[in-house]
Structure formats: structure tokens, C-alpha cells
Amino acid sequence: MKSSSFPGEPDVPVVTDASVIINLNATRTAAAIIDCFPNRFLVTDTVRRELLTGGSRGHESWEGLEALIHDGSIELVELEPDDSPVYRSLVEGGFRETLDDGEAATIACAVGRGTVALIDERKARRICADRFPALRFASSVDVLCHGLVKRALGESGQRDAIFRALRDARMQVVPRDRLREVVERIGSDRAAECPSLPRWARTMRGA
Predict the structure, then answer these.
(1) Does the pTM exceed 0.90?
(2) Could you give the residue range(s) of every CATH 3.40.50.1010 domain in the chain?
(3) 3 state DSSP class of 26
(4) Cis omega (within 30 of 0) on the bond before 81?
């Protein structure tokens, strides 16, 4: 799915994977970002459990997710019985062709409901492209760099949100061809503080 088409039709929900939740919570403005989109944001109970048991960073994001669910910004959903074949196909088999439970649940939910899958992991995106060519997927960067976020937070607020996700959550920039855009948005001084960026991006000058 091309970034320019995200989020697509306003009545199409988006399903968020754990990495996206972590990145959104790191911005400190997660609710404002989610609420500026006309689309419903969903999260599976599998991802919720994954964050609960995922260590200190995951647990902090679980608390943030609970607040988002409580406030109505994100809707908690369970996998349907019809989602099981896709889910099992993603967790059973060799390492190269399987995903963790949260990613598998996110994709199975999106495939079953015809929604957009918000996933950052390159392996998961490759598997989606190979197995589910009709599935629409996007990334944390597609969300944070969107014009609706700029309108809601202002240019400075959007820049801060992207920077915090990169620095504090170590957000991965996918697709890779958006690296230069991201660095230009936050500036080279801030890019140097972001360990998830490749070295060439952290040392860019003039951005």
C-alpha cells in the first residue's frame, strides 16, 4: 500500500500492531493523533496481552493503550473464528515465514475485516505483500507524517511527535525510502539523537 493512499476511505478501520502502539505512546500525544483521523482504530486482544507481558517498555505502552481504550480512541477486538486459518498460517512453520502472535493477530484481523493493517516490522510487511496482495498496510511513519496530524498538532507538534517516537521508542522508518523525508522533518540535530536511524541519516547535514 502506498503512503499517499493512507488512510483511504474514512469508513475503513485500521488495526494497530504492538510496535505502532509503542510508537504512538512515545509521542505523548497518542489520543490527539488517533482522534484526528476519521477512521476507527482497532487493536486485538492478542496485542494487548503482548504489551502487558512485554517488559518495561511494553508494560508502559500497555498502560497507555488501556487509557486509549478507556477513552474510546482505540477499540479492543477479538479474533473471529473465521480469522483462525490466516492466524495459524502465520504462526506455524519455519522462522522465515512465521511471525509473533501479535503481528499474526493484527494481520489476520485486517484480512478478515478488510481493514488497513498498521505494521512496522519489515518481515511482517514482506509476508503480507507475498501472501495477501490485496491487504492494505501502512506504518507508524505513515500515521505520524500525515497531513491530518500536522493540522491537529501544528508543524512543531508533529515534528516533536516524530522525534519522540524515533528517540524514545526507537521507531523504525518504513518504507526505507522515507528516511530522508523524516530527517528533513525533524532536523539533523535531532536526527543525531535517534538510535533507530541508520548512521548516514543520523549524520546528514543541512536538513
Answers:
(1) yes
(2) 10-142
(3) helix
(4) no
